[in-house]
Design brief:
Layout: E1 4-9, E2 12-17, H1 28-43, E3 49-54, H2 65-69, E4 93-97, E5 100-102, H3 104-111, E6 114-118, E7 122-124, H4 138-146, H5 148-157, E8 161-162, H6 163-169, E9 174-176, H7 181-193, H8 197-209, H9 215-225, H10 227-242
Parallel strand pairs: 2-3, 3-4, 4-6, 5-7, 6-9
Antiparallel strand pairs: 1-2, 7-8
Helix pairs in contact: 3-4, 4-5, 8-9
């Protein structure tokens, strides 16, 4: 069986890390397959939203330290120039977290737009105890998401953070009963896939790219990114709203 499996349900693509015998740690082969899965999702015009999930009750335990300890294994930074986590996808990606999302698995979860955590979820920089540094974007994305103080707490201590603490600090967006994270994430994905896509992606792009920009420049970029949506979607959408469709926040 493939170490990374793909399941498609209409516009929703579910990417499955399938190494439960290794707590879904990513060896070099699985890392390459995951990168390819993201590339294929990007290129598929019919795929609107993706969900990332780990089989067997664990999201991902990070890099495969057994392989890393062997001779000849060269692990490049996952968030390096050409790594699988180096650039945001152009379409939304939702993490469905059951069990541990630790070390590089935390980096994977942070790479996603949202994190739907089961009550069983545990987040943490567990590689701290083995002297393995983070090179998956965690030291950049975690402070931006939860604030510097909370990020340094996790990075310095390596402590486990459960689903409820993760939601309190903004690391998890939703908490679901154990065993239901994937179902909930896929339901959110289907909901998002029903919206007009140009406007949603333009707003997402603006949010992802505004950090560090002066306010005026960020607002200018937002306006520029909105042009296609205004031209191609907004007038028709306003007409649908006027006729009574799509009210209450649902797809139209």
């Amino acid at each position: 069986m493939a170490k990374i499996e793909i399941e498609r349900d209409g516009p929703v693509t579910t990417v499955i890390i399938n190494r439960p015998e290794a707590r879904n740690a990513l060896d070099l082969e699985a890392t390459e397959q995951l990168h390819n899965a993201f590339v294929d999702f990007e290129r598929d015009d019919d795929a609107k939203v993706a969900v990332l999930w780990g089989a067997g009750g664990t999201f991902c335990a990070g890099a495969d330290l057994h392989e890393m300890a062997g001779e000849g294994a060269v692990y490049k930074p996952w968030a390096g120039t050409d790594g699988p986590l180096s650039h945001p996808l152009s379409k939304p990606l939702i993490a469905a977290v059951e069990g541990h999302a630790v070390a590089g698995g935390l980096g994977l979860a942070l790479y996603c737009d949202m994190r739907v955590a089961a009550e069983s979820a545990i987040f943490g920089v567990f590689c701290r105890r083995f002297g393995v540094p983070m090179s998956d974007g965690t030291t950049v994305r975690l402070p931006r998401l939860v604030g510097m103080g909370r990020a340094l707490d996790m990075l310095n201590t390596g402590r486990p953070v459960d689903a409820f603490d993760a939601k309190t600090m903004g690391l998890a967006d939703r908490v679901e009963p154990t065993g239901h994270a994937r179902t909930a994430a896929e339901a959110i994905a289907r909901h998002m896939a029903g919206f007009p896509q140009i406007a949603m992606r333009a707003d997402r792009w603006s949010a992802l790219n505004q950090a560090g920009l002066p306010l005026a420049e960020a607002l200018e970029r937002e306006a520029e990114g909105a042009e296609d949506a205004k031209r191609l979607e907004a007038a028709a959408g306003a007409a649908r709203f006027s006729s009574g469709a799509g009210r209450g926040g649902g797809p139209s």
